[in-house]
Amino acid sequence: MERSGEERKKEGRQSSILRLMEKNFYISVEEISDFFTVTTQTARRDILALEKAGRVRRLHGGAVLVGPLEETVYRRRRVDNAEQKQRIGELVADLVPDGASIFIDSGTTCEAIARALSRRNHLRVLTYSLRVATILNENTNFTLAVPGGFVRPIHGGIFQEETPEFIRNFKFDSAIISVSGIDNDGDLCDDDHAESVVATAAMAQSRRTLVAVDSSKFGKRAMVRLGSISDLDTLVTDTMPEGEIRRLLEENDVEIIC
């Protein structure tokens, strides 16, 4: 049976919603409504249909993607906001003195930070990102530690059940973290529960927690709560945040560098 024009329009809109979610992992009902000029009831029906198809998981006020990140999406993230990520990397490198002990998270922003850190000397680095480790190993005289385990495809994270415990054997001057979003309520959000557990363990072992994100992450929500703005010492970004996020940062005496 031939589909009606309305059915084709609905399927096209839902495919577009998934493409939008590939960049930020989360989308709200209001964002769907505004972007596609539909009612919030239609936006909720789209989310429900995508959930029934196994593509998304509903959350309060929106939805998150289900399933692993595809290689094409990760490659696009490396290109998106590349100039901002490079500048953020340089700012972070300015904050890390020679000889410091640091933890570096995974992700495209942390890869940019690793490249910028190559001008430092004798850092002691722990990372669970095979990509970050490769960048540092090829270009520096750093002492480099990585946990054992299986390498996840696409982003190169190294995980096993004991990884958080491995990290608790170390002390860091700084934990350098990147997140998928900073929600307007102050929560730090990530796409992957395993990664958030590792990052949380590193934050607990560090004198300073530094979060590095480009401004596209402000007001974004992802499935896993990693922590909150109150856990931070420093935020490094490309544009000064505004609104509730700015208020929470100032209320918690978080240093903002942009």
Structure in a nutshell:
This protein is an alpha/beta fold.
Give an overview in words.
This is DeoR/GlpR transcriptional regulator. Keywords: DNA-binding, Plasmid, Repressor, Transcription, Transcription regulation. It comes from Martelella lutilitoris. This protein has 258 residues and is an alpha/beta fold. The chain has two domains: 5-67, Arc Repressor Mutant, subunit A (Orthogonal Bundle); 75-256, Rossmann fold (3-Layer(aba) Sandwich). It is built from ten helices and 15 strands. The chain has helices at residues 5-24, 29-36, 40-52, 71-79, 82-95, 108-116, 130-139, 163-167, 193-204, 243-251, and strands at residues 26-28, 56-59, 62-65, 101-104, 124-127, 143-145, 150-151, 158-159, 172-177, 181-182, 187-190, 206-212, 224-228, 234-236, 255-257. The strands form four sheets. It has a seven-stranded parallel sheet with strand order 6-5-4-9-12-14-15, with helices on both faces. A three-stranded antiparallel sheet has the order 1-3-2. A three-stranded antiparallel sheet has the order 10-11-13. Strand 10 (181-182) and strand 11 (187-190) form a beta hairpin. The longest helix has 20 residues, at 5-24. The radius of gyration is 19 Å and the shape is globular.
Top keywords for this entry?
DeoR/GlpR transcriptional regulator, 3-stranded antiparallel beta sheet, 2 domains, 7-stranded parallel beta sheet, alpha/beta, NagB/RpiA_transferase-like, 258 residues, Rossmann fold, DNA-binding, plasmid, Arc Repressor Mutant, subunit A, DNA binding
